[in-house]
Amino acid sequence: MSRDYKIIEKEEIVPNVHKFVIREPRIAKKARAGQFILVMAHEKGERIPLTLSDWDPVEGTITFYVLELGISTMDLITLDKGDSLYSIAGPLGQPAKVEKFGNVILGGGCFGIGGIYSIAKAMKAAGNHVTVIMEARSYYLLYNIENLRSVSDELYITTSDGSGGIKGHVQKKLDELVIAGRKFDRAYFMGCTFMLMQCSKATLPHSIPTGVALNAIMLDGTGMCGCCRVTVGGQTKFVCVDGPELDGHLVDWDELFIRKQIYREEEAVSYQSHACRSTTGYEHEMKNNSGGDS
Ligand SMILES: Cc1cc2nc3c(=O)[nH]c(=O)nc-3n(C[C@H](O)[C@H](O)[C@H](O)COP(=O)(O)OP(=O)(O)OC[C@H]3O[C@@H](n4cnc5c(N)ncnc54)[C@H](O)[C@@H]3O)c2cc1C
Ligand code: FES
């Protein structure tokens, strides 16, 4: 029997970031903090990994945030409340390591501001003192602030342009806290690869064990294709089945950056031609519907 992945709620909460709530009782029942799903917007679309931000087993819904980057994220965000996604597979990946560590520091940037919520909630429920630092280029790009505040003991905001909170990035606030004498027993970061690398570099001198939610390119999401291969501490790991949380102090970041850029040219070309096709299709439809002479 085919499933209906209906969009219950969809909202562009800040420019380019869209919140989705989908009816998916099966995943809502099984999901654990840090896991992800593979989503296809339509039948001919690509499967893309997205992090589960929240889920409600009673209502049977899951929540995730989409940052529009290329074709597949664009396909997703053109869907509306009431539409259905073509497919969702999950929950996938290992749950984040959550236990009573003591003082936990979490950092989220771009889509990670949405995704880090499940980690903060689980860490808090496990009895930790939870400190969250969020980052964005500018204050107007920050979202999920009240949700994160509700599951953290301390919440700090950083912006690259200084328009809100501290001017700088997650690692700057982290450094400030450590210099002021704060001790952290565990760190976890979610966001773009550069941010994950910078944050891992920041926790290394202070010997804070650090998990990072790696976002390698994925295809099957089940450890079969090898697309998401990374090197961690000299060993080959597959982000989809061994992660997404892996040890930030041991990741071979140079290799990850190279692998992530492999399809950059093709992605840019296909994004542009897809956008052009969409426009042409739209114009064609408009012409036909307006009783034109074709
Ligand atoms: C475990 C995991 C969790 C993620 N969670 C989220 C999330 O919650 N919200 C969100 O907005 N994004 C998330 N991402 C990133 C998201 O999957 C990519 O942004 C998306 O696949 C880009 O597809 P595109 O066609 O729109 O862009 P493209 O133009 O195809 O790609 C833009 C960039 O996204 C990366 N990318 C492309 N294809 C993939 C792929 N199949 N898998 C992973 N990365 C890819 C590449 O680095 C590429 O340069 C996650 C990625 C991983 C691996
Ligand atoms: S996505 Fe294929 S091995 Fe991980």
Structure report:
This protein has 294 residues and is an alpha/beta fold. The protein has two domains: 5-92, Translation factors (Elongation Factor Tu (Ef-tu), domain 3, Beta Barrel), CATH 2.40.30; 105-259, 3-Layer(aba) Sandwich (Rossmann fold). Helix content is 31%, strand content 30%. The protein contains nine helices and 17 strands. It has helices at 25-30, 71-77, 112-125, 145-150, 170-179, 193-203, 239-242, 253-260, 264-289; strands at residues 5-14, 17-23, 36-40, 48-51, 54-56, 61-67, 84-85, 87-92, 103-109, 129-136, 154-159, 166-167, 186-190, 210-213, 229-232, 235-238, 245-247. It has a seven-stranded mixed sheet, with helices on both faces. Strands 5-6-2-1-7 form a five-stranded antiparallel sheet. A three-stranded antiparallel sheet has the order 4-3-8. α5 runs parallel beside α6 (193-203). The model is unreliable at 279-294 (pLDDT under 50). FE2/S2 (inorganic) cluster binds next to loops.
Unreliable sequence segments: 279-294
Small molecules bound: flavin-adenine dinucleotide, FE2/S2 (inorganic) cluster
The helix/strand class is: alpha/beta
What is the helix/strand order? EEHEEEEHEEEHEHEEHEHEEEHEHH
Any idea what the CATH superfamily of the largest domain is called? Nucleotide-binding domain of ferredoxin-NADP reductase (FNR) module
As a percent range, the share of strand residues is 25-35%
In the CATH scheme, what's the topology name of the largest domain? Rossmann fold
So what's the CATH class of the largest domain?
Answer: Alpha Beta
Q: State mean pLDDT (0 to 100 scale).
A: 91
Major sheet details: 7 strands, mixed
Domain tally: 2
Proportion in helices: 25-40%
Oligomer description: single chain
Radius of gyration: 20 Å
**Widest sheet, order of strands:** 12-11-10-9-13-14-17
Shape: globular
Question: What is the total tally of β strands?
Answer: 17
